[in-house]
Amino acid sequence: MGAKKNFVLDTNVILHDHKCIYNFEENDIYIPIVVLEELDKFKKGNEQINFNAREFVRDMDNIADNDLFVKGASLGAGLGKLFVVTNEEYPPEIEKSFSERIPDHRILAAAFCLKQRSKLKTILVTKDINLRLKAKSLGVFTEDYINDKVTNMDIFEKAFNTFDNVAPEIIDRLYASQEGVPINEFDFSSDIESNECFLLKSNRASVMCRYNPFDNKVYRVEKEKIFGIEPRNAEQAFAVNVLLDENVKLVALTGRSGTGKTLLAFASALQQHENYKQVLLARPIVALGNKDLGYLPGDAMDKVSPYMQPLFDNLNVIKHNLNYQGKEVRIIDEMQKSNQLVIEALAYIRGRSLSETYFIVDEAQNLTPHEVKTIITRAGEGTKIIFTGDIQQIDSPYLDNQSNGLVYMIDRMKGQDIFAHVNLVKGERSYLSELAANLL
Q1: What are the mean pLDDT values of the chain's consecutive 10-residue runs (440 residues total)?
Q2: Which helix (H) or strand (E) holds 329?
């Protein structure tokens, strides 16, 4: 345990995690009064940041006393104290470089003044890169909020593991029967995670496999055509395999644009439509100009339609592959008419309980860890949730490829029997799309 420190929190840290003040161990937390003013602007609305603002204010109300502004209020056993900084100062050093007294500069001034008068090391915690740079220019120590950052990113660099020099007899057994091979017959069994997909190679053959943790066996994976969509490579075949397994209740599909994440999830949902009361597709909306959807014209469907269009595009691809005719197309049309197939904005999911639902969350890299937790806890009996996303295409200004909810969920869930993650590497949209992804 290192020396005690002071941490000054920016508004965006609280909006990212409303429980953040309990994650700094024995160190003291300082909240500039301008942060509370900023949080007040976010209290109304249905987005996760609005919920976080309300929850934090409620927390503050529960622990608030006179000491909060003078001596600091205790956060509990093993934790430091919480202070609200009300005696705002704007020293000449700040005035000289940042004369405009906007909230960011007022937070910076609070950190600067605390650093000047305290014997303890003072650190400004913010997810705003520009504010971190401004702080550094004044000699103020600064950090990103890293409590939910994932450090091991290796699994997002490759499609799957390949194990060489496997006994040819084992591969023959996998091809000869559907009974599988016990995991303890493999030398590398300790390196395999639950529901992991991998490739086995001998000196004469290879086979795509998946480890099933429910009976501790390895099974062969075949390329299975679903609703007109056929996997084009090994990782797509792996994705379909876990998407169709009713025992796997939570699936994460990662990969860059054009690898087929959403299309495969969509087709797999349609393939299993008889097993679920509803197939629900949703994606987060990154608001225009930080404005709520209410600012946009039209009814609820008009507001979200532009954001949902990529999901409708995938539906059209499936219909196109089915030549817009046949039993499967009629099933899709009937599901849409009866509301068994629903495409909507993720903002409308809060507060619902989803039972017997095949729930696909697209663009999940734009969710915070808390938002992902909120979504998963909506799952009732018989529900399966699929998160898809490209961790290199993040639109939220305060998330990155190590702190977004998708990678956080994968990092925390790996090894669980009901969870599977497949990383898709090869683009299959078109040669042009793959060329652009590689070169641009």
Answers
A1: 89 93 95 95 84 91 78 91 91 92 96 94 95 96 87 83 93 94 90 94 95 96 93 95 97 92 94 94 64 50 63 85 87 92 79 89 92 90 96 86 93 95 86 74
A2: helix 327-337
Q: What is the DSSP string of 133-169?
A: HHHHHTT-EEE---TT-----GGGT-S-EEE-S--HH
The structure tokens 């209290």 sit at 43
Helix and strand numbers (H, E) in the chain are 14, 17
Query: Is the torsion defined by CA of 409, 411, 416, 417 positive or negative?
Result: positive
Q: Give the tokens for residue 326.
A: 């046949």
Q: What is the CATH number of the domain that holds 310?
A: 3.40.50.300
Separation CA 303–CA 440 (nearest Å): 32
Q: State how beta strands 250-255 and 384-389 pair.
A: parallel
Please give the pLDDT value at position 399: 86
Element (H, E) at 238: helix 234-243
Q: Distance from first CA to last CA of the chain, Å, rounded?
A: 45
What are 118's two structure tokens? 């305290």
The Cα 291–Cα 270 span in angstroms is 34
Distance (Å, rounded) from C-alpha 394 to C-alpha 68?
A: 37
Answer yes or no: are the C-beta atoms of 347 and 47 closer than 8 Å. yes
Say if residue 256 is in the same domain as residue 115: no
Looking only at the bridges linking them, the beta strands covering 341-345 and 357-361 are unpaired
pLDDT in tens, 260-282: 999 999 999 999 999 999 999 98
CB-side neighbour CA atoms (13 Å) of 324: 2
Which residue range(s) make up the domain with 390? 233-439
Q: How many domains does the chain have?
A: 2
The whole model's pTM is what? Answer: 0.80
d(CA 271, CA 335) in angstroms, rounded, equals 12
Q: What 3-state DSSP class applies to 5? A: strand
Domain boundary among 128, 143, 158: 143
Cα dihedral across residues 10, 11, 14, 16: positive or negative:
negative
Instruction: Phi first, then psi: give them for residue 430, nearest 5 degrees.
Output: -170, 165
